[in-house]
Write a structure and sequence with these properties.
Number of strands: 8
CATH class: Mainly Beta
Organism: Corynebacterium mendelii
Number of domains: 1
Distance between the termini: 36 Å
Protein name: META domain-containing protein
Largest sheet: 8 strands, antiparallel, barrel
Strand order of the largest sheet: 1-2-3-4-5-6-7-8
CATH topology: Lipocalin
CATH architecture: Beta Barrel
Structural class: alpha+beta
Keywords: Signal
Radius of gyration: 15 Å
């Protein structure tokens, strides 16, 4: 029952996001959008060096992520997902626009898709696990979500770390 309620809410979020995407205009020079309660399109999935990060045309605009007071909900372009999250500003960083996201128990709806859509669904599903992530602003309408480096991370590890690029409609 709880999963059904979540997936109904995620469907409503995705439908609202589709309306936002269709209604979005050009967005130059705007103030930074809030991280929460903004529908973010997943526009890049950086999980394998040999594969391009851009989503295929049939998935672009359908892969979405929303952070809200209850966690995060989203759609891979193939199926819905959710997780409990906490979000806080990263006070240890020298970057004032970085946040720490704690993700707990991500759940992905079973899917029956194939081809490129399934490939990106699997890459997004494989990206999320319970743990810490860093969310960094990249301009006023874009974010980069990366797993937080472990205590033994080396500077060159940043070159091979997985990431999701998130862009607000109109950005």
């Amino acid at each position: 029952m709880k999963n059904q309620q979540f997936f109904r809410r995620a469907t409503a979020v995705a439908a609202a996001a589709a309306g936002l995407v269709a209604a979005a205009g050009c967005g130059g020079g705007q103030a930074a959008l809030p991280v929460t309660d903004t529908t973010w399109q997943i526009t890049g999935v950086y999980t394998e060096l040999d594969n391009p990060p851009q989503l295929p045309d049939d998935t672009a605009g359908k892969a979405l992520l929303v952070f809200d007071g209850q966690g995060m909900v989203g759609n891979t372009g193939c199926g819905q997902f959710r997780a409990a999250t906490t979000l806080r500003k990263d006070t240890s960083a020298d970057q004032p626009q970085r946040f720490v996201v704690s993700v707990t128990d991500p759940v992905f709806q079973p899917v029956d898709c194939t081809g490129a859509a399934r490939f990106f669904h699997d890459r997004i599903a494989g990206f999320f696990s319970s743990g810490q992530y860093l969310l960094t602003r990249d301009g006023s309408r874009a974010l980069l979500l990366t797993p937080a480096p472990g205590p033994d991370a080396q500077p060159e590890d940043a070159l091979t770390r997985n990431a999701l690029r998130l862009v607000a409609p109109g950005g």
